[in-house]
Amino acid sequence: MAFSSPADHSLFISDIHLCEQRPDISQAFVEFCTRQATKASHLYILGDLCDAWLGDDDNSPLAELLQQQLLMLSKGGVKVFIMVGNRDFLMGNEFSKACNCELLPDPSVIKLYDQSILLMHGDSMCTADKEYMSFRKIIRDPAMQQTLLNKPLSERRAIATMLREKSRSANATKAEDIMDVTASEVTKAFDQHGVDVLIHGHTHRPAVHHIQSTDEIKLKRYVLGDWDSKGWYIKAQQNQISLHSFEF
Ligand code: MN
């Protein structure tokens, strides 16, 4: 029988950037799953869960750890959804099936506690960064993704390292504001999907933005933070959505 209680809630995370170089982040993620996510009814992962994802055939210790955690949640009755980001765009059906999770397209509108919520990774709204937008077009092309997946794992690993270096050096010289969302793109997203609430990550600028649209309509944009020295999550329950951080 389906029922809901006041304690029912859903959690949202993004930009964990799990990688072998940061065992402290992996540890924080495991703790978050075991202590917090197990109590939620739904967990929405909004992109860049991993700093890189070489393909669902990757059998690295990190990929195994991730699968183990997500399976633990789904077996415990938590419904887990995964949206990919610009780092883990090669995460696909095979992995989500193995973890008993559901892949979510970007963008997606979900209905939660009588409210429609728009979910995005966030990078599609960063249109001022022209260089990044053309790169995004390439990596989001299914044919290009298949070409990548056909390469041996070792070659994909080398490409991922190269891309990461390239992104790091390019971002170091970019003006702060071009790496944030473009205001008009945010408005467009609200209009297109007819929602009052948007949750996304990617920009690493955790905040709750209140946007006055008309006298009656107030739009809210919740931005998740990346897990670096702190972890971030959003909790949604009946009549309340809140942004939280914790030390690790
Ligand atoms: Mn991202």
Question: What does this molecule look like?
Answer:
- With about 250 residues, the protein is of the alpha/beta class.
- It has one domain (about 10-245): 4-Layer Sandwich (Purple Acid Phosphatase, chain A, domain 2).
- Helices cover about 35% and strands about 25% of the residues.
- It contains seven helices and eleven strands.
- A six-stranded mixed beta sheet has the order 4-3-2-1-10-11. Strands 5-6-7-9-8 form a five-stranded mixed beta sheet, with helices on one face.
- β8 and β9 form a beta hairpin.
- The chain is globular.
- The termini are far apart.
- The mean pLDDT is about 95.
- The structure holds manganese (II) ion (MN).
- Manganese (II) ion (MN) binds near residues 47, 86, 87, 121 and 123.
